[in-house]
Design goal:
two-stranded antiparallel sheet; mainly alpha; 182 residues; single chain; flat
Length: 182
């Protein structure tokens, strides 16, 4: 309803798919067919042999990372970093947790501080919520293409806005785009 009021349209519903001579019409079969198509498109066999060789070699390398965890990027996040990450977020569709950016932006200060404490605990321990590894995958039709062909869709993954907020905070630190104002 809110999308209709704000003028945003929901993606067109997939009514059926055609694979060879077979018409696929049930929701489960359509989802399975799109999943197979997305999996096929992103399979390793589509990479060049040079890239596959590089990937295999890189995967066998042992990382040599020495740290006392006192580097600046390992310190707890500040409330300024959290507010900055939220202010630079755009209102996208929600992920599996049903939390959107507008909810996060409207949190009272004490709740925002609680969220910051939770994010800092996650950051310092490295124990990420399993829900952050889940997403809703939405098939988006390619413009001007036959929507009954499962290869004519782009997969878009919708993930947790809380997770994306923390990712933005980490990226800002790593790429030096965030400067704390005192």
């Amino acid at each position: 309803m809110i999308n209709k009021i704000s003028g945003k349209r929901s993606p067109a519903e997939v009514k059926h798919l055609q694979v060879g001579d077979k018409e696929i019409t049930t929701v489960t079969d359509i989802a399975d067919t799109l999943t197979e198509s997305f999996s096929e498109i992103s399979a390793n066999k589509h990479y060049s042999s040079k890239f596959q060789s590089h990937k295999a070699h890189a995967g066998r390398q042992t990382l040599k990372f020495n740290s006392n965890y006192m580097e600046t990027y390992n310190t707890p996040f500040s409330i300024h970093e959290l507010r900055d990450a939220l202010s630079n977020s755009n209102d996208f569709a929600v992920g599996p947790d049903d939390i959107n950016y507008q909810m996060l932006k409207q949190l009272p200060s004490e709740v925002l501080n609680t969220l910051l404490n939770i994010l800092n605990e996650i950051w310092l321990t490295g124990n990420f919520p399993s829900s952050w590894r889940q997403s809703y995958v939405v098939p988006i039709p390619k413009p001007g293409k036959d929507t009954s062909d499962p290869t004519n869709y782009h997969p878009i993954a919708l993930t947790s806005c809380v997770c994306k907020t923390m990712e933005r905070m980490v990226n800002n630190r790593l790429y030096g785009t965030w400067k704390e104002t005192k």
